[in-house]
Amino acid sequence: MKKFKALLPIFIFWASIFAQDQFNNEFDYSQIIKVPDLSFVNQVYTGLDILEQMDFRILENKTIGVLCNQTAVNRNGRHLLELIGTHSNIEVAAIFEPEFGLWGIDDKRTKLIGNDRIDPVTGAKIYSLIERSVYPPDWIMSELDIVLIDIQDTGVRYSTYIPSITKFLESASDHEVSVILLDRPNPLGGLKIEGPLPRTEYQSYEAYHLLPIRHGLTIAEIIIMVNEMGWVKDLKRANLMIVPMANWTRDQYFDDTKLPWKKPAPYINDLHTLLMFSGLDLFRGTNINVGFGTDHPYLWFGSPWLAAGYFSEKLDRLKLPGVEFKEVTYRPVGSPYYNRVPQYDGRSCSGLEIIITDQDLVKPVETATTIITLMNQLHPREFQWRGHDYIDKLFGSDMLRVFVAQKKPPSYLSPQWMHDEMKFSEFRKSFLLYN
Fold first, then answer.
1. pLDDT tens per residue, range 117-159
2. Among 75, 115, 280, 421, which has the minimal tally of Cβ within 10 Å of its Cβ?
3. Do 189 and 216 meet the contact criterion of CB atoms below 8 Å apart?
4. Segment among 29-43, 228-242, 404-418 with least mean pLDDT
5. CB contact at 8 A, 419 and 230
């Protein structure tokens, strides 16, 4: 960090040059804030790091709202709200929190004053975009000049952060409020794409936009796509500005960036958990326990009726890339991640541990659909879909459920979404900010 601090005068010099024409007009409705070339510094800097080095000048004398959570930290682990709180000429009038809250489900640092939750650093009231309404209140939006957004996305379509930001763009458009989004890495890298595109009739918060399950985009690249393509309701566009990262490349996973890891969701403990989440979150649409009620969500799965030894032998014969399986016996007890009881709570489960042997080769969606297909074939009476075909919303179509019913070999399924992957890979090119 000392090397980068030494660059601060140079950075401000260039920032002042760009002050007259600081935006890239490559897009019709979205602007990229220009920052100096820092390629000679061998470190990744998030949009927050860049904004901090600009001394938050674009926010001076503005009334702002902030949409963020616990992941909005700089390279040194300091939170966005803490950093802004040191600037008396920036007024934070409202804080908006996505799913799982501002600080995560276990953190109680917000103050309760009457019925209002207050951030102790900025003194701003906190509004949830999940619990009562998916939109921010109209009366507070009418008071804002800018909404600042900083959230570490998962890189996986199931997450609700992108839908929440999309709803925010709609409200910002209605109230003519500018949106500044600070970019962060896709923790799963920017090269791999896996899974089908959702069909329109199956779109939901888990499949909100036309993205593969693993999309390989940063949060800014997705939101630019949403804004440019008119994917906001009624083709609304926001005055969107992006503070990009410096020195992130698409071949980098999160552990390559040397940035501090903050769980993007309370059940995602590390990068390997996140990798398997991109496939095994489909198990929420089945009666298979996916490690909830244990310390190994998405890396363990099982049930009281699974013949784990025989099932492991069948999986090993399929030679799924980048993974190995090991038998485990466990008893799920409660869950710190949701206010709900995990499947088979308190019951002994036979299961398998997923061991990632090569994160560059593993295909989590193919792994998950193979397990589901094989589970149905080996345990046709015990295996069940849950929640009125909830699996269709997670998957984005009824393709998986229909395929499982047809009893075809598991390896026949993934080629069916290969065309979607190729089509999306070509489509996304014009929205990529990084090489």
1. 888 888 999 999 987 789 999 999 999 999 999 999 999 999 9
2. 115
3. yes
4. 29-43
5. no
pLDDT score of 108 = 61
Give 38's pLDDT tier (boundaries 50, 70, 90): confident
Nearest partner of 273 among 298, 305, 243, judged by Cα: 298
Question: Residue 395, exposed/middle/buried by CB under 10 A (0-12, 13-18, 19+)?
Answer: buried
For residues 45 and 258, is the Cβ–Cβ distance under 8 A?
Answer: no
Q: In what order do the strands lie in the sheet with 300-303?
A: 300-303, 349-356, 323-330
In this prediction, residue 24 carries a pLDDT of 45
Is 267:332 a contact under the CB 8 Å cutoff?
no
Whole-Å CA distances, 288 to 164, 295, 329, 361: 29, 16, 14, 25
329's tokens: 């016996």
CATH class of 271-423: alpha beta
Beta strands across the sheet bearing 111-113: 23-24, 30-33, 240-243, 178-182, 146-150, 63-68, 91-97, 125-128, 116-118, 111-113
User: Could you tell me the residue ranges of all domains in the chain?
Assistant: 2-255, 271-423
Contact present, 117 and 103 (Cβ < 8 Å): no
- Asked if the model's pLDDT at residue 11 lies above 60, the reply is no
For 2-255, CATH number out of 1.10.260.40, 3.50.30.80, 2.60.40.10, 3.40.50.12170 equals 3.40.50.12170
Query: Could you say which DSSP state residue 416 is in?
Result: G
> Both ends of the chain: CA-CA distance in Å?
24
Structure tokens belonging to residue 171: 């409200």
0.70 exceeded by the pTM? yes
Strands (E), 59-177: 63-68, 91-97, 111-113, 116-118, 125-128, 146-150
pLDDT score recorded for residue 289? 97
Distances (CA, A) of 163 to 129, 157, 285, 321: 10, 10, 20, 32
CB contact at 8 A, 241 and 23: yes
Residues 185, 154: contact at Cβ < 8 Å? no
